[in-house]
Amino acid sequence: MFTSIIIILSGTILFLVEKRSFLTGLILIIGFLGITFYTLATLSDKSNIANTLILLIVYGLIPILVVICAFLFIKNGRSMIKKEGKKLANLLSLIIGIYIYYDIS
After folding, report:
1. How far apart are CA 48 and CA 36, in angstroms?
2. What is the DSSP letter of 105?
3. How would residue 47 be classed by pLDDT, with cut points 50, 70 and 90?
4. Residue pLDDT, tens place only, 56-103
5. Model confidence over 52-68: pLDDT tens digits?
6. Which residues make Cβ contacts (< 8 Å) with residue 30, sequence separation at least 6?
7. Rounded to an integer, what distance in angstroms lies between the CA atom of residue 103 and that of residue 89?
8. Which residues of 1-31 are buried (b: 16+ CB within 10 A; e: fewer)?
9. Quick count: other Cβ atoms within 10 Å of Cβ 73?
10. I need a surface site. Which of 2, 36, 54, 104 has the fewest CB within 10 A?
């Protein structure tokens, strides 16, 4: 718990220094995920609702996020083709999105 709070504080300091850094966002996400999982682990000892919530996150939310990512890859690929033409570098995002949909089914 304290580690997550330290990670969030360091992420906040980095955010104040440089707002557009990828590392800052990554550090903040890791800190908030640490607090979230610590809270769920603490609550799962006391109630079955937290256990159900953990199962819902693992088995329900992650597959939905995979489908959303595939959709966003395809959308990005189409916009890249419209704006920059049909080059291999512009087709990669579209190909990855189609492959994810193909792999799921």
Report:
1. 17
2. -
3. confident
4. 877 888 889 999 999 999 999 999 999 998 889 889 999 999 999 999
5. 877 887 788 888 999 99
6. 7
7. 22
8. eeebeebbeebeebeeeeeeeeebeebbeeb
9. 20
10. 2
